[in-house]
Amino acid sequence: MSTTADPLAALGELPGVPDSVSAMRGAVDRVYGHRVMRRRSAEVTAEAALRGARASAALGGADWPLEEVRRRSDFGADAEARTVGAALRVAAEAGQLLGVWRQSPLRVLARLHLVAAGGGVRDRETARSGGDPVGRPRLAGEPVTELLLDGFPLLDADEVTARLDGLAGLIVAGTAAPALVTAAVVHGELLAVRPFTEYNGLVARAAERLVLIASGLDPKSVCPAELGHAEQGGEAYVRALAGYVSGTPEGVAEWIAHCGRAVELGARESTAVCEALQRGAA
């Protein structure tokens, strides 16, 4: 990355990125301009959270129909159910952490992982030994379970710490870069680094959403980027991430554009929800 005081700002000028920012902004403005948002925005927000969580779980290997997610109450039966439950918990928790995000992003990431994993340490002995990987970056030798990301090199624990500290520094310092650029970098870094032993994808996608909300781009959280990522497909997601991991200007720009398209698709979905609510009200 650049050594300038605001290294993210330069990414906003990469070829194609201003167009992606503009297209995404237009989609977000359309949903916020819908007449239903003036009266029933809380319903749209709730539906966006549910659909976003379902989509994030799908990218995590649990592609359940929306109505199944809506209907179920038991999410501990098997691996897929646990993934869906984790995605729902993370979606619910993320909105409570906005006040902490700008000051202490690493605390927020740890909290999101803790919530995804379903609680805290399994027993006191494990807690004393530091052997439970929940809610903290992985230690040397600890494996990562993340099938979708298996093709990417796994950084060692020291690299993980350094990259997380660098990312936190960027967030706390702030940037003049568009919200899309910051959100894409946060998302891409967390996927590339994989700081936790599991649920890195869920945490990364929730962090992307947090940036979009905290920036003021999507203050009511009605544009679920997770849904857009899932709609573009796992293969496209991994291919775009490979561009980010490459570190080339073209690759990073491709990843930012992919994230912008994800927000556009999330906004389009919520616009459809607004239309459905309007027809119901009529």
TrEMBL record:
Coiled coil: none annotated. Residues 104-258 form the Fido domain. Transmembrane segments: none annotated. This is Oxidoreductase. PROSITE patterns: FIDO. It comes from the Bacteria.
